[in-house]
Amino acid sequence: MDVEHRHADRGTPLARFASRILVVCPRCGGRAVVVPRPGGGPLRYYSDLLFLPRRLACAGCGATGEWEPERRAGARVGVTLGGPAEPYFGRPLWLQTRCAGRVLWAYDAEHVDALTGYIGARLRERGCTPSSWDMFPRLPDWMTSAAHRETVLAGLAALRTLAGRSAPADRSDAADGSASRASRRRVTY
């Protein structure tokens, strides 16, 4: 079997892709980015990204925003990842498109590449002990179905192209915010 058609899952968490999230700018509607604020120190685990203070910045119009994790009884309250809105500011993701009657989304180009590798594989191998943090086993059936493989790969190719664009006119019609719902669930640490 061709190596290009094989994907070995090593337990990739969705949090791995949360260090740089492309979003729709609240001011100009172009591409903005949500990143951890500088000076947060080195990460020990990808899950640390759920609790770090964040900064939203738009290179197009200069809009900025700051997010701090809530504190409850001495614990930091982080966010829960997933869905077509980023969880820190509640902004619609820049990388989303309509696909197979649903919304296909990703956080950044690296996330798109990881999804493309998994969806495009004809043979998907599971890694060691599965975890509730693993991204690939939690993907919806419509994305992983062989019947939708070509459609989803075309959608991911559209997202890959969109990752290189930043003007408000380049924004996908799916990124209008109508499908965005920031998660109400929070995690504590």
Commentary on this structure:
With 189 residues, this protein is of the alpha+beta class. The chain has one domain (3-185). The chain is 16% helix and 24% strand. It is built from three helices and eleven strands; from the N terminus they run E-E-E-E-E-E-E-E-E-H-E-H-H-E. The protein has helices at 109-119, 141-144, 149-163; strands at residues 6-8, 21-24, 31-36, 54-58, 64-67, 70-72, 75-79, 95-99, 102-106, 123-125, 186-188. It has a four-stranded antiparallel sheet with strand order 2-3-4-5, with no helix packed on it. The chain has a three-stranded antiparallel sheet with strand order 6-7-11, with no helix packed on it. It has a two-stranded parallel ribbon with strand order 1-10. A hairpin with a 6-residue loop joins strand 2 and strand 3 (31-36). Helix 1 packs antiparallel against helix 3 (149-163). The N and C termini lie far apart (44 Å). The model has no long low-confidence stretch (mean pLDDT 86). It comes from Streptomyces kunmingensis. Residues 167-189 are annotated as: Disordered. This is TFIIB-type zinc ribbon-containing protein.
